[in-house]
Amino acid sequence: MESVLQDQINALSDLHSKLNAIRQIPAGLLRRPILANKDIFSGAPVHSVKADFEQLKEVGDVVRSDIVQKALVGAQERIEADGTHLDTNYRRDNRKRRASEFVRSTDAAPSPESPKPYVPADRTRTSFFRAQDAEPAPVLYAEGLVQYAREFNKTQETCRLHIWEKTRDRREDKPRMLRFSIPDVLVAYLSLGYSSSDKAAIVHLVTVFGPREKKPPHSQSEFGVFQQVSQEIAKMMQTQERVLVGDMVGLLCCYEDLFYEPCAECGRLLSVEGHSPPVVRIWRGGRREARHVRCTGE
Question: Is there a single domain that holds both residue 286 and residue 146?
């Protein structure tokens, strides 16, 4: 166990070093000609843009590797299980709290030069995973996922859900991946974790692919529309404290009409800017609507 943990720490440390290295690439691109491979004065070879992109690709491969993905999931689980609630922004938050207490104690109005406080947008009129007055999906546990998938497949005409494993001979006690599919529409892989408080199965990440793409779950689709769906689902998940399996499966079922349901706001199937279908699904007015990214404003 200790050796596995040390390997994960080494993998994340190596990734951190690589990320620090590629942060210098954008500034370097601005300082040198894109097409030049030699210095125009001395004729000496210079670092090429192609090498920069190869370095970026290498970092992307590292991020998608199994050991890094397992290390990230393990780190997240350890953070959730940590009872100390350590926060790297403690000092900043403490200063902000002391400043706000001083303003309240002196009853002093902020000066005109003071930045206005951030007021979060009112999101009470919209929801992503269920109607506002609907109950959350039932909590599922590791031992009940297989039965849940079987019952789900019996009630669906097109959508399918399966436990995904690297090899059929290897079945984990706690499944780490679900495969959701809609024929001729999409395939989605749901990366799972388990809550430290009640052991519930929760969704950490969803990656969407085309129905005929043969790519591993931790990679990325080659098609822009499926990349957008993955990105929008990630944004939806950030609005929730945790996402249960049933809620995510219910959301994915709504993408059955991805390529023929027009946007509820503009009435178009393809967006004007990106020529992509509505990839956002939200509950509004008691029903789920399809919307383009630019048509989701209140």
Answer: yes
Nearest to 254 by CA among 182, 201, 189, 202: 182
User: For residues 268 and 38, which has the higher predicted lDDT (pLDDT)?
Assistant: 268
**pLDDT of 43:** 55
163 has a pLDDT exceeding 90: yes
Q: Are residues 36 and 158 in the same domain?
A: no
Tokens of 164: 């995904």
Q: Decide if 203 is inside a domain.
A: yes
287-291 and 201-209 beta bridge pairing: unpaired
pLDDT value of residue 2: 72
Domain boundary, last residue among 31, 57, 81: 81
CA distance 40 to 50: 18
Residues 290 and 209 occupy one common structural domain: yes
Number of domains, the chain: 2
The tokens of 234 are what? Answer: 């990630």
E-only strand ranges, the chain: 160-163, 177-182, 186-194, 201-209, 280-284, 287-291
Q: Is 217 inside any structural domain?
A: yes
Tell me how far CA of residue 109 lies from CA of 67, 93, 103, 119, in angstroms.
53, 21, 7, 18
**117 in any annotated domain:** no
Residue finishing a domain among 28, 55, 81: 81
- Answer yes or no: is 8 within a domain: yes
13 token code pair: 């440390």
Q: Give the confidence band of 19 by pLDDT, cuts at 50, 70, 90.
A: confident
d(C-alpha 98, C-alpha 265), whole Å: 44
Q: Are the beta carbons of 100 and 108 closer than 8 angstroms?
A: no
- Give the separation between CA 98 and CA 90, rounded to whole angstroms: 12
Are 146 and 290 found together in one domain?
yes
Interval 74-133: pLDDT, tens: 888 877 776 565 555 555 556 656 656 655 555 555 555 555 555 554 444 456 777 767
Domain limits at 212?
142-295
